[in-house]
Amino acid sequence: MLIPIAFFGQKKPVAKIDSTSYFIQLATFNKKTNNYKAALSFSQKAYNYAKANNNIKGQANALFSLGLTYFDLKKMNDAIETFTKSADLYGILRPSTDYALCYYYIGLSYMGLEEFGKAEVNFNKAQYIYDILKIDTSQFLNLQKGILYKNKGNIELATKLFNEIISKDDAKDIFKTKAEAFYQLGTIEEKMSHNNLAANYLSRALTLSEKDKNADQRVKILLELSKVYEKLLDVKKSFGYLKAHTDLKDSLSHLNNQKLDANDYVDFKESERLKAIDQMTKENEAQQKTNKFAKLITILAISLITILSLLSLSLYKNNIIRSQSNVVLKEKNFELQIAKDNAEKASKARAEFLSTVSHELRTPLNAINGITHLLLEDNPKQNQLHYLNSLKFSGNYLLTFINEILEINRIESNNIEIEYIDFNIKQLLLDIQNSMHEIASKNNNKFTLDIEEDVPEILLGDPTKLSQIFINLINNALKFTKNGEVKVVARLIETGDDYSRINFAVSDTGIGIPDDKQGTIFESFSQGSIEINRKYGGTGLGLTIVKKLVDLLDGEIHLVSKVGVGTTFDFELNLLHGTKEIVVEKPKTYSDDILKDKMILVVEDNKINQMITKKMLEKKDIKCQIIDNGEDAVEILSKENHFDLVLMDVHLPGINGTIATQKIREYDTVKPIIALTAISLNENREMLMSFGMTDVITKPFEPENLYRIIAANIG
């Protein structure tokens, strides 16, 4: 684990030797000759000289040298304290490899103390600085990451990193890292009782360790080999490796005692403590003399000097506080930046994954729903009708699930905006009640509305999001209630000059929610239990969407429920008063005569979707021509104008549908072009229309909706 840094961290020789560099070189030389007492002394002298000359970089270099000496002596707490001081000083300067190395060695010191959480924080800081410097650190930091993963129990990730290390050539001293990687893989296989494989890894680790002459590493490898061969019942080899381990451990112990006598270390620390006390005493004496002189001056000009003294003292303290705060802030900024980058990457990856999955599922789902529709329209046999209806139900269920995933993704990615339009709240609730009449009848439920008279009819807000909230809550209430009652209540809480605060409640007399499930009921994919999921179905996303939409509208939703009695969800919203009367328009209908003998160009690259779209159009006596790319669409429409309308898939090979439409609009601004899209996270109707699309049809599309939109644009 303790790896020399040959390329990324080696100190560069300086051309001009000052006293600080000279003392550091003496310290390094004495460490090579095993005279650690002198090494400590020279590192401290280097620091004292640099501090006396106010040399920030010199102080940082001297403390780094002192930290390495503590590290070699396995005085990990002293090493951490010294490296941290060095990092604080390097932080004042421009980012450098020395700065990154401080955090790297702090991480190694915490690894030696088995404080793996703190080790990981400091390795991340080192990685962040190396990234700024655009230096590849995989040669040595991946090993530490692998060891951290292993200690966290994430064996799969750890094994992957170790295997990447051992697969590399032995060039550039990589064998030093490979020995540790082989050792770690050996211990993993040993815990999994793969003893033969463990023995193989550990033997290869021992060979590389001997090449590196890393005695500390060989000690632990020999001990693990002894344990593995004991499990393999090879007593002779087990004893041989154990004896080699003991002999080498005794030799190392003797060597470590030669490095620095315990009394020498205590004497060094005590000497430095006494020097610090002596320095403070001298500073105090000097301060006392200054104070006496200040008193004398104060007697001569008390008013002026008092003001100047107070001002000077204030500036002095402010400078000290500011300097200390800057160091702390830099430290915290690095930590926050690392955490922010990781959080943003995770959030972006999750959003892109869900968006891609939801988007890609829509294309095959369009084929499933389309073929099912065509088969149902083709007078199937009675014994086939049940299967086709089941297939249609499953397709619609999957579409609902995908839409809910995409809706959650939009909300969480802040890719959704609140509308402020006039709407009739009573009419909105009545329309929802009418649309759910069939669901209520299915479970023999009584579904009622109770809207107080003083609730304003015309309000200003987002009726679409309110509809989503009510539909999800009411649908759940009707689904989990049989032979009971579901009620929606709207009450006015308070009113102002331009707003009203309204409480909405959806209550039922259904199965209720257990107390232990109520705390997690708004989490994604959460339902009362597995049994409830199997019995009643559902995605477990409806209440998550409700919670997020209520939060988006600055409301707060509450839950009251008792098993066997029923459930009530209620929330309050501040809604502005509307300014105009709402005219309810009836849905526009179309006549098949409008569609008959019309010529449509279909631009679609998916062969199955080509077939389905063509069959659907021919059902209405529509003629069509199919091409599979945007380039051909641009060329055909630039020469032929007998097409009444274009159905343009957005995602095409080569230029996509939006770019193709943009090019067509350069010479034809009239012809209707309707976008066919499985709308993803970053797409919306307004974006598609901005490229010149006339209308948008979302995949998988309902046949009647397809005909209605075509008729509206042709008519």
Please give a quick description of this structure.
This protein is of the alpha/beta class.
How would you characterize the overall build of this protein?
By secondary structure, the protein is of the alpha/beta class. Helix content is 64%, strand content 11%. The protein contains 27 helices and twelve strands. The chain has helices at residues 19-32, 36-52, 56-72, 76-90, 97-112, 116-132, 138-152, 155-166, 174-191, 195-212, 215-231, 235-259, 262-300, 302-377, 382-412, 425-435, 437-442, 463-479, 515-518, 530-536, 542-552, 592-595, 607-619, 630-639, 657-664, 685-689, 703-714; strands at residues 421-424, 446-451, 458-461, 485-495, 499-508, 556-562, 566-577, 599-603, 623-627, 645-649, 673-677, 695-698. The strands form two sheets. Strands 1, 2, 3, 4, 5, 6 and 7 form a seven-stranded mixed sheet that branches. It has a five-stranded parallel sheet with strand order 9-8-10-11-12, with helices on both faces. Helix 7 runs parallel beside helix 9. It is extended and about 100 Å long.
